[in-house]
Amino acid sequence: MELSNHYPKSESPLVTIGIPVYNVEPYIEKCLLSVLNQTYQNLEILVVDDCGSDNSMAIVSSLVQKHSRGAAVRITKHAQNKGIGEARNTIIKECRGKYVYFIDSDDFMEPNAIELLCAQSEKYETDVAIASHRKVALNTGEELPTYQYKSFRRFYGEDAFANYVCSDLRWHVAIVVWNILFSVDFLRTNNLLFAGRKDEDALFLSDYYSEVKSAVIMPDITYNYVARPDSIMGYMARKKIPIREIYERFNTDAIMTEHCARLRGRSFYDVHCARVMKHKFRAVCVALRHRHRFTEPLTNQEIRQELKHPASLSDIIHFKRYKLFNLFFNIIGRFPPSLSVGVVYVIGKLIRWI
Question: What is the pTM for the complete model shown?
Answer without folding.
Answer: 0.91
